[in-house]
Amino acid sequence: MSDLLRRTAAHLTAPPEGRFRFVAVDVETANRKDGSICQIGLAFVGDGTVETFSMLVDPRGRFDPGNVRVHGIVPSDVRGAPRFPEALEVVRDAMERHPLVQHSRFDQRAFDAACRSHGLRSVDGRWSDSVQIARKAFPELKGAGGGHGLANLKRALGLTFRHHDAGEDARAAAQVVLAAEKRLGTIPALRWRAEQLEMDV
Protein backbone atom coordinates (compact mmCIF):
# COMPACT_ATOMS: atom_id res chain seq x y z
CA MET A 1 0.00 0.00 0.00
CA SER A 2 1.41 3.40 -0.98
CA ASP A 3 2.01 6.14 1.58
CA LEU A 4 -0.91 8.06 0.08
CA LEU A 5 -3.30 5.15 0.57
CA ARG A 6 -2.16 4.76 4.17
CA ARG A 7 -2.84 8.45 4.74
CA THR A 8 -6.27 8.17 3.12
CA ALA A 9 -7.13 5.13 5.24
CA ALA A 10 -6.45 7.18 8.38
CA HIS A 11 -9.47 9.34 7.64
CA LEU A 12 -13.12 8.43 8.22
CA THR A 13 -14.42 5.76 5.86
CA ALA A 14 -17.69 7.62 5.22
CA PRO A 15 -18.92 11.18 5.78
CA PRO A 16 -20.23 11.56 9.34
CA GLU A 17 -23.94 11.93 9.92
CA GLY A 18 -25.64 14.76 11.76
CA ARG A 19 -25.51 18.53 11.58
CA PHE A 20 -22.30 20.55 11.64
CA ARG A 21 -21.45 24.24 11.81
CA PHE A 22 -19.80 24.10 8.40
CA VAL A 23 -17.85 21.76 6.12
CA ALA A 24 -14.47 22.67 4.64
CA VAL A 25 -13.75 21.24 1.19
CA ASP A 26 -10.57 20.55 -0.75
CA VAL A 27 -9.76 18.63 -3.92
CA GLU A 28 -6.64 17.49 -5.74
CA THR A 29 -6.63 17.25 -9.53
CA ALA A 30 -4.81 14.93 -11.92
CA ASN A 31 -3.97 17.56 -14.54
CA ARG A 32 -4.57 21.17 -15.51
CA LYS A 33 -8.26 20.60 -16.19
CA ASP A 34 -10.25 21.87 -13.21
CA GLY A 35 -12.60 18.89 -13.39
CA SER A 36 -9.90 16.18 -13.22
CA ILE A 37 -10.56 15.53 -9.52
CA CYS A 38 -8.51 12.64 -8.14
CA GLN A 39 -9.09 13.19 -4.40
CA ILE A 40 -11.86 14.83 -2.36
CA GLY A 41 -11.44 15.92 1.25
CA LEU A 42 -14.12 17.19 3.64
CA ALA A 43 -13.65 18.49 7.19
CA PHE A 44 -16.83 18.53 9.29
CA VAL A 45 -16.72 21.22 11.98
CA GLY A 46 -18.92 20.79 15.03
CA ASP A 47 -18.80 22.43 18.44
CA GLY A 48 -15.19 21.79 19.40
CA THR A 49 -14.70 18.95 16.92
CA VAL A 50 -13.28 18.56 13.42
CA GLU A 51 -13.88 15.22 11.68
CA THR A 52 -12.11 14.59 8.38
CA PHE A 53 -13.18 12.41 5.47
CA SER A 54 -11.27 11.87 2.22
CA MET A 55 -11.57 9.59 -0.77
CA LEU A 56 -9.59 8.90 -3.90
CA VAL A 57 -11.35 9.38 -7.25
CA ASP A 58 -10.44 7.86 -10.61
CA PRO A 59 -10.53 10.76 -13.11
CA ARG A 60 -10.13 8.34 -16.06
CA GLY A 61 -7.62 10.72 -17.58
CA ARG A 62 -3.94 11.56 -17.64
CA PHE A 63 -1.89 12.54 -14.60
CA ASP A 64 0.39 15.46 -15.40
CA PRO A 65 3.86 15.24 -13.83
CA GLY A 66 3.47 18.70 -12.30
CA ASN A 67 0.30 17.71 -10.48
CA VAL A 68 1.85 14.45 -9.30
CA ARG A 69 4.82 16.37 -7.88
CA VAL A 70 2.40 18.49 -5.85
CA HIS A 71 0.13 15.81 -4.34
CA GLY A 72 1.93 12.52 -4.95
CA ILE A 73 -1.13 10.73 -6.35
CA VAL A 74 -0.32 8.44 -9.30
CA PRO A 75 -2.60 6.39 -11.58
CA SER A 76 -2.01 3.17 -9.63
CA ASP A 77 -3.31 4.86 -6.46
CA VAL A 78 -6.75 5.49 -8.01
CA ARG A 79 -7.07 2.13 -9.74
CA GLY A 80 -10.35 0.69 -8.49
CA ALA A 81 -11.42 3.96 -6.87
CA PRO A 82 -14.87 5.36 -7.74
CA ARG A 83 -15.27 7.66 -10.72
CA PHE A 84 -16.49 11.18 -10.03
CA PRO A 85 -20.24 10.44 -10.44
CA GLU A 86 -20.02 7.69 -7.80
CA ALA A 87 -17.85 9.83 -5.54
CA LEU A 88 -20.31 12.71 -5.81
CA GLU A 89 -23.10 10.41 -4.62
CA VAL A 90 -21.09 9.84 -1.43
CA VAL A 91 -20.51 13.52 -0.62
CA ARG A 92 -23.34 15.47 -2.29
CA ASP A 93 -25.85 15.25 0.55
CA ALA A 94 -23.37 16.39 3.18
CA MET A 95 -22.17 19.24 0.96
CA GLU A 96 -25.66 20.46 0.15
CA ARG A 97 -26.86 20.31 3.76
CA HIS A 98 -24.06 22.47 5.18
CA PRO A 99 -22.35 25.78 4.56
CA LEU A 100 -19.10 25.12 2.68
CA VAL A 101 -15.67 26.68 3.10
CA GLN A 102 -12.89 26.45 0.52
CA HIS A 103 -9.41 27.97 0.60
CA SER A 104 -9.58 30.05 -2.61
CA ARG A 105 -12.28 29.53 -5.21
CA PHE A 106 -10.63 26.60 -6.96
CA ASP A 107 -12.55 23.80 -5.25
CA GLN A 108 -15.97 25.08 -6.28
CA ARG A 109 -14.72 25.52 -9.86
CA ALA A 110 -13.38 21.97 -9.82
CA PHE A 111 -16.70 20.51 -8.66
CA ASP A 112 -18.62 22.57 -11.23
CA ALA A 113 -16.26 21.50 -14.03
CA ALA A 114 -16.40 17.82 -13.04
CA CYS A 115 -20.19 17.94 -12.90
CA ARG A 116 -20.36 19.56 -16.36
CA SER A 117 -18.01 16.98 -17.86
CA HIS A 118 -20.21 14.15 -16.57
CA GLY A 119 -23.56 15.81 -17.33
CA LEU A 120 -24.45 16.08 -13.64
CA ARG A 121 -26.26 18.76 -11.68
CA SER A 122 -23.78 21.03 -9.92
CA VAL A 123 -23.50 20.88 -6.15
CA ASP A 124 -26.08 23.27 -4.71
CA GLY A 125 -23.63 24.64 -2.18
CA ARG A 126 -23.28 27.83 -0.15
CA TRP A 127 -19.57 28.49 -0.62
CA SER A 128 -17.33 30.83 1.35
CA ASP A 129 -13.61 31.46 0.97
CA SER A 130 -11.27 30.99 3.94
CA VAL A 131 -8.66 33.15 2.17
CA GLN A 132 -11.03 36.10 2.54
CA ILE A 133 -11.67 35.15 6.15
CA ALA A 134 -7.94 34.96 6.86
CA ARG A 135 -7.35 38.35 5.25
CA LYS A 136 -9.84 39.95 7.60
CA ALA A 137 -8.55 38.17 10.70
CA PHE A 138 -4.80 38.28 9.96
CA PRO A 139 -4.15 41.40 7.84
CA GLU A 140 -0.52 41.50 9.00
CA LEU A 141 0.22 38.47 6.79
CA LYS A 142 -0.50 40.35 3.57
CA GLY A 143 2.55 40.13 1.35
CA ALA A 144 4.54 38.31 4.03
CA GLY A 145 6.21 35.13 2.80
CA GLY A 146 3.22 33.64 1.02
CA GLY A 147 0.45 35.87 2.32
CA HIS A 148 -2.72 33.98 3.15
CA GLY A 149 -1.91 30.75 1.35
CA LEU A 150 -2.21 27.57 3.39
CA ALA A 151 1.54 26.99 3.54
CA ASN A 152 2.19 30.42 5.06
CA LEU A 153 -0.81 30.20 7.38
CA LYS A 154 0.55 26.86 8.56
CA ARG A 155 3.75 28.58 9.67
CA ALA A 156 2.13 31.74 11.01
CA LEU A 157 -0.66 30.04 12.96
CA GLY A 158 1.25 26.93 14.02
CA LEU A 159 -1.13 24.58 12.22
CA THR A 160 -0.31 20.90 11.85
CA PHE A 161 -1.30 19.28 8.57
CA ARG A 162 0.17 17.59 5.49
CA HIS A 163 -0.13 20.07 2.62
CA HIS A 164 -1.64 18.85 -0.69
CA ASP A 165 -3.56 15.94 0.76
CA ALA A 166 -7.23 16.81 0.21
CA GLY A 167 -8.40 15.65 3.64
CA GLU A 168 -5.54 17.40 5.40
CA ASP A 169 -6.00 20.63 3.42
CA ALA A 170 -9.73 20.62 4.14
CA ARG A 171 -8.94 20.29 7.83
CA ALA A 172 -6.43 23.12 7.52
CA ALA A 173 -9.02 25.40 5.92
CA ALA A 174 -11.35 24.60 8.81
CA GLN A 175 -8.57 25.38 11.29
CA VAL A 176 -7.98 28.74 9.60
CA VAL A 177 -11.63 29.68 10.08
CA LEU A 178 -11.59 28.54 13.70
CA ALA A 179 -8.36 30.46 14.37
CA ALA A 180 -9.94 33.57 12.88
CA GLU A 181 -12.99 33.07 15.08
CA LYS A 182 -10.80 32.71 18.17
CA ARG A 183 -8.87 35.86 17.37
CA LEU A 184 -11.86 38.08 16.64
CA GLY A 185 -14.51 36.43 18.81
CA THR A 186 -16.67 35.62 15.79
CA ILE A 187 -16.20 34.20 12.33
CA PRO A 188 -15.11 37.30 10.40
CA ALA A 189 -16.91 38.20 7.19
CA LEU A 190 -19.41 35.41 7.82
CA ARG A 191 -22.84 35.46 9.31
CA TRP A 192 -25.41 32.77 10.02
CA ARG A 193 -28.82 33.31 8.53
CA ALA A 194 -31.48 30.61 8.31
CA GLU A 195 -28.81 27.92 8.92
CA GLN A 196 -26.76 29.43 6.12
CA LEU A 197 -23.21 30.75 6.16
CA GLU A 198 -22.87 33.76 3.91
CA MET A 199 -19.86 35.76 2.84
CA ASP A 200 -20.08 39.48 3.43
CA VAL A 201 -17.24 41.03 1.45
Explain what the structure shows.
- The protein has 201 residues and is of the alpha/beta class.
- The protein has a single domain (3-199), classed as Nucleotidyltransferase, domain 5, CATH 3.30.420.
- The protein is built from 8 helices and 7 strands; from the N terminus they run αβββαααβαβαααββ.
- A 5-stranded mixed beta sheet has the order 3-2-1-4-5.
- β4 (99-102), α5 and β5 form a beta-alpha-beta unit.
- The longest helix has 19 residues, at 166-184.
Say what the CATH topology is. Nucleotidyltransferase, domain 5
CATH A-level architecture: 2-Layer Sandwich
Question: Which geometry do the CA atoms define?
Answer: globular
CATH class: Alpha Beta
N- to C-terminal separation?
45 Å
| Helix content estimate | 25-40%
Strand content: 15-25%
- SSE run: HEEEHHHEHEHHHEE
Overall pLDDT score:
86
Largest sheet: 5 strands, mixed
* Domain count: 1
Summarize the structure.
The chain has 201 residues and is α/β, with parallel strands linked by helices. Helix content is 39%, strand content 19%.
Structural features:
Nucleotidyltransferase, domain 5, about 40% helix, about 200 residues
